[in-house]
Amino acid sequence: MEYNLEGRTVLFSKNVLQVIKTMKENNINKSIINQLIRSTTSVGANYCEANGASSKKDFRNKIYICKKEIKESKYWIELLAEIE
User: Fold this and answer.
1) DSSP 17
2) Rounded to whole angstroms, how far apart are CA atoms 48 and 42?
3) Judging by beta carbons within 10 Å of its beta carbon (0-12, 13-18, 19+), is residue 76 exposed, middle or buried?
4) What's the predicted TM-score (pTM) here?
5) Backbone angles phi, psi at 22, to 5 degrees
6) How far is CA 42 from the centre of its chain?
7) How far apart are CA 74 and CA 40, in angstroms?
């Protein structure tokens, strides 16, 4: 079974960016939006880097970063959903 995670991570970033574009930025949500943009786009970038890793150890490190960024993204999405 093929998972196409590169495509899915790009789609995830695009979807989040589309939602963010519809939001009116204010003093409360501005920094949360910026953090969310950084973490969501980082997931795909790090996954692409993992696929080009020079070793198994490098691959694991990049995947670990992806995992951390996805957890951070989840946090920002939940927080933003609560205040919007």
Assistant:
1) H
2) 10
3) buried
4) 0.88
5) -85, -10
6) 5
7) 9
Ranges of H-type helices in 22-84: 30-51, 56-83
Buried (b) or exposed (e) across 25-59, using 16+ Cβ within 10 A? Answer: eeeebeebbebbbebbbbbbbbbebbeeeeeeeee
**At residue 45, what is the residue type?**
A
Token pair of 23 as six digits = 């939001």
Please state at what angle helix 5-21 crosses helix 30-51, rounded to 10 degrees.
170
By C-alpha distance, which of 36, 34, 48, 41 is closest to 76?
Answer: 36
Residue 63 in tokens: 């995947």
What is the torsional sign of CA 68, 71, 73, 79?
negative
- Give the amino acid at 21: K
The tens digit of pLDDT for each residue in 31-53 reads 999 999 999 999 999 999 999 99
